[in-house]
Design brief:
Length: 184
Amino acid sequence: MKKSWLLMICVALLSGCAVWSKVEKSAFTAQDRSYSAELPVGWVRFHLGRSENDVFITYDGPGIERIEITKRENKDAFPKIKKAARENMLVFELAELMIAELKAAEALANLEVVENAPAMISELPGAKLELRAKNNKGVEFEMLVYGVVGKNGFYTLTYQAPRLHYFQKYSGAFEKTVASFRLL
């Protein structure tokens, strides 16, 4: 009996300290006012251990699909490979560094580049990557990663989901977020 009361108290306390919130308005502006974007309404935003300038949202759960927007200082743009981003770097240089950084992540060791193309992001030249990888359970994931370097940082917009069913289901919502992304 004491254990069940203790469990109910813990649940009540933890629910008051929510680390997630439902996206009820699509308009999002980073806390530092460096960028804005339209997020898909009805998705859930996770806050745990993330900067208020970054976005991590999911619809069915973080292990299923997710959209992320991150900002890093240019000098700290690629921490795993210890490289910096420059505002005037060529798109192919940016794409190469993005791929190297992603491959340096242990969880993405089997990363396959399906497409590497230039893309305009907030009216600036950037890179678009389409990638595939399998997790340790053999599930094949697809990723779209856009990257752009601005005066105030290096920004990435990432969408990841299992290749079967989920990737196509929500890729349109992600592309709308990318199209709405603006450096301020």
